[in-house]
Amino acid sequence: MRVLFIYPNLNAQIGFNYGISYISGLLKSEGIETFLLNINADLGYPLDLMRIKQDVTRIDPDLIGFSVLTNQYKYALEIAASLRTYYGRPIVFGGIHPTMDPYGTLKEPVLDSICVGEGEEAFLESIRAGSPVHVPNMGYRDGNRAVLEPLRPYTDLVRLPPKDYEIFDFQRMIDAKGGWVGLLSSRGCPFRCTYCLNHRIIKLYKDSGHLPKDYIRRHTVDQVIGEIQSLLSRYHGIGMFIFDDDLFTFDKDWLREFSEKYRSVTRIGFVCNAHVRMFDEEAASYLKEAGCRIVKFGVESGSERMRRSVLSRYMTNGDIEAAFRAAHKFGLHTSAFVMIGLPGEKKEDVQDTLRLLAKIQPGRFRWTLFFPFVGTRAFEIAQSAGAIDFARMADLDNFTDETCMDLGADVNLYVQKAKDCFCAFVNGYADVPEYAGIVSRVEAMGPGAWETGKASVASEIERADERVRQRGQQHYEVRYNRFMGVRSDWEDDNIPA
Q1: φ and ψ at residue 48, rounded to 5 degrees
Q2: Vertex 100 angle, CA 387 and 36, to 5°
């Protein structure tokens, strides 16, 4: 039995797909051969239908499985449609998009079935049965009728075989990402943010009779340490581990044990995610002891109104400030993630986000444009407000360059200005003199003046950066990618996380 995975990841950062790595590891443990086409130009594999055809016919798989993100859905459909013209084996779509929109996905004639939720055991069982029928977590068409089987219980992570890193040509990925290696020690999150898939997945499983309390699961510390040791023995050039868990710090007993054992196997630093309401000096001390370099927080918005009414993020600005103080007290470099262009957002809300970043002074921040993922509560909020440009939404393949939200001419313009001048705006709101005038002028520009003047504004910001750099004053500059601002006292250029 030969299974080919196809992972479209176009016009996006190089990503490691944990779903494929887990499923492939399980299939290989059962004697099933697995292969992967990782479609990403930065890895030397752009969207080339003829090259895909050559690889598919060479591998000759018995089954083809796509892992599909919403922003990549159109590419998955394009590839699958091409496959249909020359290859007759079954095509299965899995991943976030089919989970969030199963019936919409099953309307597509280019695929045979879908996998909803966690796919390891479902995918294996459907292969053994030779059919998705009566297999929990699978969906398929029965004539013109879409059928979704009930969900099985959550996967026990501790019992799964090790992830399959080799299927990704992992050394090449390490090299392409400058030594950045992703890890995952848990699944699930206790929060119900409207823009995230967690609340929808929890509802799906709850409706199938599975209790949400089982949603948050962890590998044992020894399993994680063993995985790190295996990676270090098999690959070279690893400079930083990135824990991609939704919430790495939620279990302090686990964190304490991890902090004691991690330093016994490596001095390589790591990055992890935390939540401001589940982070204090005790958690910061464990991370520091283990060698954590960067702790990342989802701030999302500096407007308490937006966090409560749109995002279901029930923390105060005081909570955010306290978490960053705790991290900074122990010398941890912090990262804040924010979104702009939210449904119902006003100019003043965006300014609240800029002011909060200027106040808490994170080590770095990343900004993005809000994207209403189908199936989330945030999508419903944006749709009810009539704020989605669906034609533009269908064209987007990332949410850093353009938005599909229409918030009115004035707000749309301010969001574009903030997106293009984010670091300068934060510096200006932090009272760094060189930027105050720039911010005032940009905020006063009308749409015509902005379109004709934004190139000269970018040059003016570059000159301001140079002057402040020479003076040695702390400020933020765009580094590593166009949607990240890094504080000027960060000196480790080998760590792009």
Answers
A1: -135, 100
A2: 120
Is residue 214 predicted with pLDDT exceeding 80?
A: no
**pLDDT for the residue numbered 497:** 45
What is residue 212's predicted lDDT score, i.e. its pLDDT?
Answer: 66
The residue among 206 and 271 whose pLDDT is bigger is 271
Cβ pair 478, 425 in contact under 8 A:
no
Query: Alpha-carbon torsion 36, 37, 41, 43, what sign?
Result: positive
Chain mean pLDDT for the chain: 94
Give dist(CA 335, CA 248) in Å, integer: 14
Tell me phi and psi for residue 269, to 5 degrees. -70, 170
pLDDT score, position 203: 83
pLDDT given for residue 496 in this prediction: 46
Determine the pLDDT at residue 13. 85
Give the CA dihedral 247, 327, 193, 240, nearest 10 degrees. Answer: -50
What would the two tokens of residue 490 be? 């960060």
Q: What is the pLDDT of residues 421-456, one digit of tens each?
A: 999 999 999 999 999 999 999 999 999 999 999 999
Q: What is the pLDDT of residues 229-272, one digit of tens each?
A: 999 999 999 999 999 999 999 999 999 999 999 999 999 999 99
Domains belonging to the chain, first-starting first, are 2-157 (3.40.50.280), 178-419 (3.20.20.70)
| Cross-strand pairs, 292 | 270
Q: Residue 486: phi, psi to the nearest 5?
A: -120, 135
Burial 245-268 (b: 16+ CB within 10 A, else e): bbbbbbeeebbbbbbeebeeebeb
Question: Cα–Cα distance between 185 and 249 in angstroms, integer?
Answer: 11
Residue 494 pLDDT: 52
